[in-house]
Amino acid sequence: MADTISFKLNDKPVRLKVDGARPLLWVLRTDLGLTGTKFGCGEGHCGCCTVLVNKVAARSCLLKAKEVNNKAVVTVEGLAKDGKLHPLQKAFMEHDALQCGYCTPGMILAAVSLLNSTPQPSREQIIRGMEENFCRCGAHHRIVEAIQAAATEMKGGR
Amino acid sequence: MNTNDYLALDFKDTTDLFPVSSRREFLKRFGGGIVIFVALGDFLAAQEAGRPRGPRPGLPSDFNAFLRIGEDGRVTCFTGKIEMGQGPITSLPQMLAEELDTPLETVDIIMGDTDLCPWDMGTFGSMTTRFFGPALRAAAAEAKAVLLELAAESLKIPQAQLVAKDGVIFDQQNKEHRITYGQLAKGQKIERHLTVKPPLKDVSQFTVIGKPVLRRDAREKVIGKAQYAGDVRLPGMLYAKILRPPAHGAKLKSVDTAPAKEIAGAQVVQDGDLVAVLHEFPDVAEKALAKVKAEFDIPELKVDDKTIFDHLLGVAPSPNVVTHGGDLEEGKKISSKTFATTFLNSYVAHAALETHTALARIEGEKATVWASTQNPFGAQGEIAQAIGLPAKNVRVITPFVGGGFGGKTRNTQAVEAARLAKIVGKPVQVAWSREEEFFYDTFRPAAIVKINSGIDSSGKMAFWDYEVFYAGERGAQQFYAVPHHRTASHDTPRGGTGSHPFATGPWRAPGNNTNTFARESQMDIMAAAAGMDPVEFRLKNLSNPKIIGVLKAAADRFGWTPGKAPSKRGYGVACGTDVGTYVVTMVEAAVDAKKGTVQVKRAVCAQDMGLVINPAGASIQMEGCVTMGLGYALTEEVHFKGGKVLDTNFDTYEIPRFSWLPKIETVLVEAKDAPPQGGGEPAIIVMGAAVANAIYDATGARLFQLPMTPERVKEAIRKA
User: Fold this and answer.
1) Confidence of residue B117 (pLDDT cuts 50, 70, 90)
2) I want to staple B379 with a disulfide (CB 3.0 to 4.6 A). Which of B107, B297, B411, B427 is the partner?
3) What residues contact residue B174 under an 8 Å CB cut-off, 6+ apart?
């Protein structure tokens, strides 16, 4: 059952003929070759597959491809603009806010979504906002610091 | 090329394949340059000594290049170690750059590629820095000696007059007379075989080792370009989903794959017990597999997560005395108070966020497998055996590994991918689902510790009789000054038959989490009975200057003031030693007595790990250990009934989250003159006892079982 799905992916228009019931995660990773979005649990618990849909964090393992029809999707590959890293990407590097790096794309996109809705979050707001993203290596401490630093840098808009 | 670019290139190099019959041949393909081989003498013997169990394959005698200096002046470090977050991708180049006197930015690293890298027993046991590090430094020192010889010849200046610095050799009397490493390597085809350890730099000469350096793989990881095994794409590849039994020990009785074949593009494979559905999209393969109808014979197994401890004690092997001294009967006589205690811990999963994944391609007599593994050379052997190829025809490439913690030392998924690739004649990826990951994980074993101990009327430990079942002896040898003691371990490789209902294996600091939880809880039980502050009690019973130094450093940073537990402050302390490192953690916890929940508000972790290569990396590992350790302390426990694992995802198996995060401070106790020790594991061993002792200090309730779930905390409070 091929559906035609049109959406914006990392600022570029995409038109796909796929079974619209397939999970967005696998359409991104296989059909579109964007492997930055990771599989972690397949049930929406861990947040490794987080992408932005219309600027809001969403679990791509639970989203059907057809649900993003006519929407704007951003994956970790689309975050840097013209080779310039997003302040959160820079902050994660500068704070060593990762170890194995597997949760990192999802962490960064969840943080982008958080800062979209709460530009200057308190430590408690960061913790609440990131609660559903898991990191097994225990980089949480640095991730909180990195988000705080990026929020400060982004003051006044990006 | 700047530092931001070089690592991506490394991995492109290793995934661009060309047929080679041996690593030596491959190294020749690098063209000119200087290649340093290290003879497998003392260095690998040291690794071998630490080798836990399993077969010991013959060591290769010559394909052990450690570094190459190219004609462009770039230096490539080859290591069979892998990067799973623990940081050698940064610390090994630091060691190399230090000894070779080349800028860190000029060092590239190729990791975990069996065709290119020296044989390695695997990345576990905190052995990278301790055992591979010295070999790498020796190779770098040898390379520098070669460069100095070449420079003397080329510049016509006596060697003694030359100085190497930042990738350049110059005449110390006239700095204009200079030549770069790249220039020296040009047109050379030099192979050196190092058999005698060359002199290494003294600590006082270090300019790179000991300086904090940010992770070198961070850029790739934040832009989504870092490749893990599941991210490798080959033309024509298929994704496989494999039929799994509902319980361990279940046997396939009948299977009907016809309904799966109705899905367009699905290919079904049946090879003995291996039943798989393959498709060009993994999600479609999964959908098709769900249509397979299978019946299994499930063995009747009564044991579950509650009865397991009695079961294990019933089938326990006889003890092996690890250490003993003095006379226990004499110790009992001089004791004024004695304590008989039993501690338990449940099975714990590794739960790395990247599940076991591999992509296999077989072309003629050559197999190439990209695998998420902590043990690429082990995988090479396992794959070779499974598909009937000589090991040298199997190349295992290890991209970035998305967490291991000891769980990626077996390579079942790589063997599955290779078997399927051989059958279908196309590249095949096997990536386990989270449910498969929980089912096939080699759990940290459930374990029991029984301690009998006593103190005399002055608060001195009089005797210590310690028995550990199934955790193993790592960390069981206590370091307190007790005159009469015995430590015994009941264990057989992998538990032995009839013990665990599923696979168990090493879990970050194997054994030591169990042993340190028991020992340090017992210390606090005795301190409370003696009416002494837990830190004061430990100091009274310690003579080891290392652990005393670390304990004092932790107390100082924490601001520990003496108080007899339960002081209501919620303070907890635990000491430990693992892989040569001494560690003390102090926490402050709040307990909600009604709900039974525990919130660790603050943690101070102090560590003496000898010479620290990368203080930034060491601190991250300590923070990671504190955070991850809260999981096995508070929630992590595998639920099962017979051979059926009831936890299938993170909804019931809870790992630490942001809201658990304490304020973490780390202290590195300076010990520059001691050789570097382990860093990825030690700090996790103390978390169980530090939290248990904090709960006692807050409530007066003693917890004897890990994890300390709300139910167990409430139960302990009721009994207190």
Assistant:
1) confident
2) B411
3) none
Please tell me whether residues A72 and A121 are part of one structural domain.
Answer: no
Burial group, residue B161, by CB count within 10 angstroms (0-12, 13-18, 19+): middle
Find, in chain A, the residue whose alpha carbon is nearest to that of B355.
A40
Last residue of a domain, one of A46, A78, A110: A78
In terms of residue numbers, what domain contains A101?
87-153
User: Considering chain A, what is the average pLDDT of its residues?
Assistant: 96
> Are A98 and A146 part of one and the same domain?
yes
Same domain, A94 and A74: no
For an interface test with B, which of A85, A100, A114, A125 has the most B Cβ atoms less than 10 Å from its Cβ?
A100
Interchain pair A136, B655: CB under 8 A: yes
Whether A19 is in a domain gets the answer yes
Is the CB of B656 less than 8 angstroms away from the CB of A138? Answer: yes
- B654 inside 8 A of chain A by CB: no
Rounded to a whole number, what is the distance in Å from the CA of B659 to chain A's nearest CA?
6
CA B674/CA B651 separation, integer angstroms: 45
Strand order in the sheet with B581-592: B571-578, B581-592, B597-608, B663-668
- pLDDT at residue B537 greater than cutoff 70: yes
d(CA B446, CA B504): 9
pLDDT at B490 exceeding the cut of 60: yes
Within a domain: residue A116? yes
Looking up residue A70, the CATH number of its domain turns out to be 3.10.20.30
Sequence-distant (≥ 6) Cβ neighbours of residue B276 within 8 angstroms: B240, B241, B242, B243, B268, B269, B270, B289, B416, B420
Q: Which residues pair with B573 in a beta bridge?
A: B586
Q: Do residue B224 and residue A75 have CB atoms under 8 angstroms apart?
A: yes
Whether the CB-CB separation of B470 and B447 falls below 8 Å is answered with: yes
| CB distance B648 to B434 below 8 Å | yes
Same domain, A63 and A92: no
Contacts of A108 in chain B (CB under 8 A): 222
Q: How far apart are the first and last CA of chain A?
A: 42
Q: Are residues A94 and A112 in the same domain?
A: yes
The length of chain B in residues reads 720
DSSP A43: S
Q: What is the pLDDT of residue B128?
A: 85
- From A133, which residue of chain B is nearest by alpha-carbon distance? B657
* CA–CA distance, B640 with B697 (Å, rounded to integer): 33
| Surface of B (52-91) touching A: CB under 8 A | 84-87
Band of residue B65 on the pLDDT scale cut at 50, 70, 90: low
- ipTM, two decimals, is 0.98
Identify whether residues A60 and A125 lie together within a single domain: no
Put simply, the chain A residues between 107 and 126 with a CB less than 8 A from any chain B CB are 108, 126
CATH number of the domain that residue A149 is part of = 1.10.150.120
- Do A33 and A50 belong together in one domain? yes
Is A96–B616 a contact, with Cβ atoms under 8 angstroms apart?
Answer: yes
Structural domains in chain B, CATH included, are 3-221 (3.30.365.10), 229-298+356-431 (3.30.365.10), 308-348+443-719 (3.30.365.10)
At a CB cut-off of 8 Å and minimum separation 6, what does A123 contact?
A144, A148
What are the two backbone dihedrals, phi and then psi, of residue B608, each rounded to the nearest 5 degrees? -110, 105
Nearest to A43 among B85, B353, B649 (CB): B649
Are residues A110 and A66 part of one domain? no
Q: Is residue A158 part of a domain?
A: no
